[in-house]
Q: What sequence folds into this?
């Protein structure tokens, strides 16, 4: 199975005036990697989800996500932001942004991987390690190890 | 304390699982136990009914409707959106503790809101009963479908339909067994087909019972060893009691294996390969070697002993055979008595067959009657089983009593044995005769001294009914009754 994430899907210097822009940058990485066929279409699906309820979580986390027909394989793109991007959490902007893309009719195997990723996101140690990881490779390795046990 | 929770969100790929993880962490940190059902895109594994029954409170962290909410009726409920659980799971756990403590222990007084009953942890007896009930609840449709199909086959095709399908001699005519089931419709007609399909459904009865007893104990991983153990119980002719043994054994083995803590990388292999492999092998080995052989030996011993009794007092023989019919309801002891009667048939002794059939009809009839006379002593599932049991009993399908007996063997088996013994003895006393090996009330034409046979049926039915009701009322304290009520609500 294709890896959930690799160094090309990580931006350790994510910038953006608002969450739309930051999310679009991460989605661009997915498109370059050939995992999203139509960036605009995918972003519209993410926005639709975001409008139901903001995806910002307390503790500096943003998890824009969608199941979308424009996604080919379950993919995670990760961005770290110095200034922070507002994803609508009550306690302020997010410095860790996870864009989660799932194919529309994804099999349960794929969904299980995303589920185990989501579970990791609430672990303090995982977040601390992500904040202190030196480079994109280290982040990719960390996520693969935590989520897939590889 | 013990909690159960359900998490769900619109997309079902992120918040559902984050909330579950956060609740599990917070509960652990506060020293409580929690089981979470994630109703997300990866598919929800339903909460075990035992966990639900034992839970002191229920937590919903959901932005969309929680599925199957009625499972939680009567429990204190803490409800919020998924985000609250992710951001502040500890507060939700604390709230659940508060609500559980505020709820009165045991049964709520009349008029109180039904949402405020706290459940003390189930005792071992109640737990066992819940496991058995779980197995029975999954088995019921097989009993109803299989039993009614077989009964219909007798109604349409007469008693000879069984022999036409399975082969053997009936009324002096020898039939070849049908070896290719696709030919049945052409060779034996619709009745034959009904009989065959009913038999297939009945064949699943013990495996399903065992599989879902194990499921009740050990969740999804219990199913494989339970069903394999149940199939072996069916193959070695151990009957539903063998199924109970297989199910409880499978559940216990998986529970024990789950105690082994594996590290993250290994736990996937544990769940997918190791536990199924070891549990299936261990259960199958024990069922075949340690349970199977003694049953075969005991069956042979019992058969020889019965043969030695041939000249004994007829009424005593009827009493004994009747009790055997009622003991395991299609299991090995029942089969020994039945085969003895079929053997007597071959040597032109028709009274024994009549006694054995009367005794085999009585257990479902008596329990059906009991579930109508005192419905409160029976669960809703048992009352449903009772409706089908009338037809099954009338058709000499003793298995119709299994749902009752599997759920509460210690009280039900004495009642079916007593009723069977009474029917067998009375039938012998009237010297009723029967020239067919099956068919129940539908072969009334082949019964000699019909009045005597029906009197035997009525007496046996009344005895089973009375004993079952008496035992259910006497040997049942208040706490057990309350545990039962909660168990019923959870299934």
A:
């Amino acid at each position: 199975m294709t890896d959930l994430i690799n160094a090309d899907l990580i931006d350790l210097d994510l910038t953006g005036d608002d969450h739309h822009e930051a999310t679009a940058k991460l989605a661009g990485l997915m498109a370059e990697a050939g995992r999203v066929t139509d960036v605009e279409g995918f972003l519209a699906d993410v926005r639709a989800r975001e409008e139901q309820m903001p995806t910002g979580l307390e503790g500096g986390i943003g998890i824009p996500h969608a199941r979308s027909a424009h996604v080919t394989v379950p993919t995670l793109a990760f961005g770290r932001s110095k200034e922070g991007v507002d994803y609508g959490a009550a306690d302020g902007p997010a410095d860790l942004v996870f864009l989660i893309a799932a194919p529309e009719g994804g099999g349960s195997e794929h969904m299980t991987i995303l589920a185990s990723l989501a579970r990791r996101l609430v672990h303090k140690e995982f977040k601390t390690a992500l904040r202190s990881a030196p480079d994109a490779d280290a982040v990719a390795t960390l996520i693969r190890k935590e989520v897939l046990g590889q | 304390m013990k909690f159960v929770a359900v998490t769900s969100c619109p997309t079902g790929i992120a918040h559902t699982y984050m909330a579950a993880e956060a609740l599990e962490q917070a509960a652990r940190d506060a020293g409580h136990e929690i089981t979470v059902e994630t109703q997300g895109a990866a598919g929800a594994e339903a909460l075990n009914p035992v966990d639900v029954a034992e839970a002191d409170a229920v937590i919903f962290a959901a932005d969309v409707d929680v599925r199957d909410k009625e499972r939680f009726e009567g429990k204190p409920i803490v409800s919020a959106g998924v985000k609250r659980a992710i951001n502040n799971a500890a507060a939700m756990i604390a709230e659940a503790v508060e609500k559980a403590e505020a709820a009165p222990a045991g049964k709520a007084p009349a008029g109180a809101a039904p949402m405020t009953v706290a459940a003390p942890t189930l005792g071992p007896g109640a737990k066992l009963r819940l496991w058995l009930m779980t197995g029975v609840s999954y088995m019921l449709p097989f009993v109803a479908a299989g039993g009614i199909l077989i009964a219909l086959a007798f109604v349409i095709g007469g008693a000879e339909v069984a022999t036409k399908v399975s082969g053997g001699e009936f009324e002096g005519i020898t039939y070849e067994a049908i070896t290719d089931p696709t030919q049945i419709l052409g060779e034996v007609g619709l009745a034959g087909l009904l009989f065959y399909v009913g038999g297939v459904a009945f064949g699943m009865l013990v495996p399903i019972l065992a599989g879902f007893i194990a499921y009740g104990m050990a969740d999804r991983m219990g199913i494989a060893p339970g069903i394999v153990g149940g199939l072996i119980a069916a193959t070695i002719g151990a009957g539903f009691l063998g199924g109970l043994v297989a199910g409880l054994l499978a559940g216990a083995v998986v529970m024990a294996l789950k105690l082994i803590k594996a590290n993250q990388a290994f736990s996937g292999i544990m769940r997918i390969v190791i536990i199924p492999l070891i549990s299936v092998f261990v259960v199958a080995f024990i069922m075949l070697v340690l349970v199977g052989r003694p049953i075969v030996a005991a069956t042979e011993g019992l058969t020889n002993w019965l043969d030695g009794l041939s000249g004994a007092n007829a009424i005593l023989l009827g009493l004994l055979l009747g009790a055997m019919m009622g003991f395991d309801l299609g299991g090995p002891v029942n089969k020994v008595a039945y085969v003895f009667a079929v053997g007597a048939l071959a040597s032109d002794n028709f009274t024994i067959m009549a006694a054995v059939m009367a005794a085999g009809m009585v257990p479902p009839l008596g329990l059906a009657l009991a579930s109508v006379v005192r419905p409160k002593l029976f669960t809703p599932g048992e009352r449903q089983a009772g409706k089908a049991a009338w037809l099954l009993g009338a058709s000499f399908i003793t298995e119709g009593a299994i749902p009752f007996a599997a759920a509460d063997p210690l009280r039900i088996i004495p009642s079916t044995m007593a009723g069977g013994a009474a029917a067998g003895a009375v039938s012998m006393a009237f010297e009723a005769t029967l020239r067919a090996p099956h068919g129940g009330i539908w072969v009334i034409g082949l019964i000699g001294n019909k009045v005597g046979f029906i009197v035997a049926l009525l007496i046996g039915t009344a005895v089973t009914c009375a004993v079952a009701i008496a035992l259910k009322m006497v040997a049942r304290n208040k706490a057990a009754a309350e545990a039962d009520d909660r168990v019923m609500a959870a299934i």
User: Anything to note?
Assistant: The longest strand of chain A covers residues 75-85. The radius of gyration of chain A is 14 Å. Chain A touches chain B through 28 residues (CB under 8 Å). Residues 37 and 106 of chain A are 16 Å apart (CA to CA).
